[in-house]
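Structure tokens please, single chain.
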Amino acid sequence: MALADLVGTTIVAGILILMMIALTGSVSESTTQQMLDVTTQEALTTVKSLIEYDFHKMGFESTPGTAITTMGAHSITFWAGIDTNNDGSPDGLNTITYQLSSTSQAASTPNPNDCILYRTIGIASPVAVSLGVTGFDLQYYDKYGNMTVNPADVKTIHVGLTVQSTMPYDNRYSEAVCEKMVSPKNL
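Here you go.
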């Protein structure tokens, strides 16, 4: 009887140990995925805040009807009076360009879909706003809500922004998406 109890106890203990190992692995996997999700969401929030700030300044201190100089499905250049030296007041009129790179420019990351979103102020060199951007889609609307291709008629811009993690976990990239209609008051 003692041998049977010992064997039974050993089997139960083995099962409990295996369950603990499986639980630990599951918690670790869940934590890693959640960290990637949070990091991706933070990247999206950072980019979104910068775009909103710049787009709301669009046309500030510029001649009416001339604020947007070039516009495309994945890029835009516009005039704005922005604070470039962080003293709280506009430093004068500058052009701001947002442009999405090709995937080949982000070849240093394992994600085959990500690009770099560049922001350029005036004649300065482009600055990478974020890595991991897989979509920066722009659509332009006039005062009646109709799509337009004429920069002088733009009153609202639909911004679609998609960010993915640059590293996969379990062959999956975390993704965060934001779509927003921006109506700069100076257009």
